[in-house]
Amino acid sequence: MSLGNVKVKVKINKKGNSNRSFEFSYTNSKGQFVQKPFTSIPEEQISIALLQKVKTTMQTLTVKVLFEEEGDRILKMREEGQPWDRDTLPEASSEASEAPKNVNPKNFHNPYNFVPAPPRKTDDPELGDRKPVGHGCYHSDRWTGRISVKLKTITPLLIPDASEMTENKDHKTYPVRLGADGKPYLPPTSIKGMLRSAYEAVTNSRLSVFFKHDKRLAYRMSATEGTTAKPARVEKRGHDLYLRILEESSCVGGAAKLPRYDKYGKSPDKGEKHQALKYNSTKGLPQHGVRVRVQLSKGKVTQIQRWDDNIPGGDWKLGWVCVTGANIGGKQNERVFIQNGSDVSVKVNDNIVELWEDLIADYQKTHEKDLAERDKKGISPSAYLGNKPGETAWSRHVYEKSEAKLQEGTLCYVELQKGYDLDNLHHTDIVALQPVTISRRLYDVKPEDLLPKSLHPAENKQELSPADRVFGWVKQNGKGSYKGHLRVHSVQCQTSKEKAIAHFGKSGVPLAILGQPKPAQTRFYCAEDKNGKAIEKGEYKEHGYESRDRGLRGRKVYPHHNHLPEGYWDNPAKHRTDDINGYYQEYRRHSGENERDSQNRSITGWVNPGTEFTFDIDVSNLSNVELGGLLWLLSLPNNSHHRLGGGKPLGFGSVRLDIDLENSDWRTGQDWREFYRSLTPITPTSLDPSVCIRDYQNAVQQIYGSGKSFEKVSFIAAFLRSSTGFNDGSPIHYPRTNAKIDPEGKNYEWFTDNEGGDLWSLPSLESGKSLPLKSRTNQKAAQGRGNAPTSAATERAKPS
Predict the structure, then answer these.
(1) Count of Cβ atoms closer than 10 Å to residue 780 Cβ
(2) Where is region (Disordered) located (predicted)?
């Protein structure tokens, strides 16, 4: 190991502009004094921290450095006392990093991943929680001023103009949002939002928003699990509700079959073989929830009457009609829940109410968009749509708003805990309430239960984390807010409008369909622990939200699409089915004549790669660490990117940020006092971002490092990986089973195959690992699947 010096000389002219020069000198292994240009050393052999320091300093300084010699080559240079920090991201060391020679045709990366959000140390004076210092004065030891920033687009940028949107048959088309000068208008709020998301991640701040995660999610249960469910009815006795569990021995499971449909899901006309059974007296069709009397034969209803009609002699039983709809192909029967004098009841408590209402809320939220589509077309959700796969009627609990509340008269199926005693039934024996026998099943815990309290949105000013103090805070529920100490303004496009914008004509380019968040996909969203560790391959989905000891993966991010081939973004209006060096046209919808509908959007233009913007950030009363985190984000290592605008899962919106030091001016409160007190010009303080950046890095390393360098802290490593992209040759796209894009977009097939196959989980972002296109490599993995436990709280089932 050798020791040397790097000297940075800074000269500021009368206009305030700076000129910098660099020198590197050392004594080599032969005892000879050597002096050479610092710029002659390849950047990949200089530590990230040292490179940032010498490139951003605005004052003359000398840095003692350690390095390795290999002949005349200088290797692994870093500041004395600091670690080598490039092992985490070897591919990000240089802008000239070589792209992989071949695209991996068997693997892919998911468009989104997660930056871990481990439990926070809330009492830390800098990265913890505290009341902000306020805006009343310039504090002597805090930074106030202006940071000038340059932004350059690396991939096309989508800035859609909603006010100029046109719509044709539910398909929306957007132009580029323009300013008064005809150039693209980039809203300051978009930049601020981008920076805030990144700042939250790299300071491990509280989440600013965490809405609608207070209900348990649901997963689709296997067919064999539904056979043990028992019919039940909610009844009111006095002021309380009771769950009456029906145990009629003459019917399988206590519910009798009620003939209703033919094999196509329609109510047959008179004279057909499978005729719907109607009332003997009025010939009316029995409706859901109605109390009736029935005669049975081998568990099937042969005659039915209203319960209060005059009934002739015979063996009649009382019950309630349960109509869920023609929700399965070939369904012919509905059910009548038969009451018995020996039925047992359980008093309904809050936990039982939650079992029902959280499940129905999940059903209705999952199908909300599809219901809206049917409503636009004037199609009743209960209507049968024809004899095609999937074109069945919807179950009533999906569209009927009254089903969302557990109330008197609710008909449902009850799943009981194994080993229950029917003569001594307790509410804790109720595992699940479900609207149909084969239903979705609730996970054991809510998403919010897996998020450490230290990461929940702040409830008051004393709980404000770094991102809340710097960018501002609004209480999620109730009154309370704080104006932040950062403002983005003066956004200007520096590129001519002719070069800045690509136009695609009036019809525009139909974009690929963007996937909807699916937090119920536990192998992608859930973590083994509170630190965001990826779930091991082979876990059943039931075990995702099974325990409060589990965690969430963290903050969702969209990794940069690295190594896209030349010409990838060319001719977007043309539907290209072939690949370019193994990369397909992921951003354009491949649906032939059906490429434009309500599921996707079109754009008539985008902001071209290479377009340059400038903007200013005003900051006030920031500490060294608060400012350091911001400055680090504005001067990321080479080949690192932020994500901005729309279409990020499709590769749009990768931008590069750099500080324009010559047009920046931030000073301490003490410096500003001297400036305002003086009647003569005062030379601006030389800016040295590296001082604040190092304080920020040291703070992160001290709290979360556990002996690791700053770049190897979990959320920093993941953030850097996201900003640089992957380097294994695997393309980024939504899960599918083939490298080539399926025009019908059957992305669900990958998840279906995975469910019956190897049960892959989303790899950690920092690992850089990919997923296989063919997830079903072990055809026997799902054998014994029906023996999975009925409750995730029971002992785990392991794949065979």
Answers:
(1) 10
(2) 79-110, 766-800
Q: Are residues 35 and 153 in the same domain?
A: no
Average the pLDDT over 751-769 and give the result.
Answer: 90
Distance (Å, rounded) from C-alpha 698 to C-alpha 694? 6
Which of these, 432, 438, 375, lies nearest to 401 by C-alpha position?
375
Angle at 212 between CA 645 and CA 548, to 5 degrees: 115
Structural domain includes residue 474: yes
In this structure, the answer to whether residues 593 and 705 fall within a common structural domain is yes
DSSP H/E element including 353: helix 350-366
Residue 616 maps to a domain: yes
Alpha-carbon gap, residue 523 to 459, rounded angstroms: 31
Domain boundary among 414, 442, 470: 442
Q: How many domains does the chain have?
A: 3
What are the tens digits of pLDDT across the range 635-653?
Answer: 998 889 999 999 999 999 9
Of the candidates 335, 330, 432, the residue with the CA atom closest to the CA atom of residue 387? 330
List of residues 6+ apart from 237 with CB closer than 8 A: none
Which tens digits make up the pLDDT trace of 671-683? 999 899 988 877 7
* CA-closest candidate to residue 669, choices 133, 146, 143, 147: 143
Cα 462 from Cα 261, distance rounded (Å)? 62
- Same domain? For 335 and 399 the reply is yes
Q: Using CB atoms within 10 A of its CB, is residue 155 exposed (0-12), middle (13-18) or buried (19+)?
A: buried
Residue 759: inside a domain, yes or no?
no
Per-residue pLDDT at 252 exceeds 80: no
Exposure on the CB side of residue 324, measured as CA atoms within 13 A: 23
In a shared domain, residues 331 and 466:
no
Which has the closest alpha carbon to 770: 731, 737, 720? Answer: 731
Query: Residues 754, 592: contact at Cβ < 8 Å?
Result: no
Q: Which two tokens stand for residue 769?
A: 């690992």
- Structural domain span for residue 68: 2-86
Closest CA to 414 of 497, 471, 308, 343: 343
Nearest to residue 458, comparing CAs of 113, 786, 130, 19?
A: 130
Distance CA 619, CA 488 (A): 9
Residue type, 371: L
Distance CA 234, CA 245 (A): 9
Q: Both tokens of residue 790?
A: 């009925």
The structure's pTM equals: 0.81
b/e string for 249-264 if b means 16 or more Cβ within 10 A?
A: eebebbbbbbbbbbeb
Q: Are residues 542 and 413 in the same domain?
A: no
Judgement on whether residues 243 and 178 belong to the same structural domain of the protein: no
How far apart are the C-alpha atoms of 765 and 717, rounded to whole Å? 8
Position 739 in a domain: no
Residues 6+ apart with CB under 8 A from 417: 428, 429, 430, 431, 790, 791
pLDDT tens digit sequence for 715-749:
999 999 999 999 888 999 999 999 888 877 777 78
> What one-character-per-residue DSSP string does 747-760 give?
THHHHHHHHTTT--
Strand boundaries in 723-787, DSSP class E: 771-772
Same-domain pairing of 377 and 302:
yes
In the numeric block, the tokens 């929940």 are attached to 456
Assigned token pair, 799: 């794949």
CA Rg value for the chain: 32
Of 667, 669, 703, 702, the residue nearest 685 (C-alpha): 667
Q: Amino acid letter at 731?
A: P
For residue 203, give the nearest of 450, 463, 465, 448 by alpha carbon. Answer: 465
- Residues near 206 by Cβ (< 8 Å), separated by ≥ 6? 120, 129, 200, 454, 455, 456, 457, 458, 463, 464, 465, 467, 468
Q: How far apart are CA 701 and CA 88, in angstroms?
A: 15
Residue where a domain stops, chosen among 683, 709, 724: 724
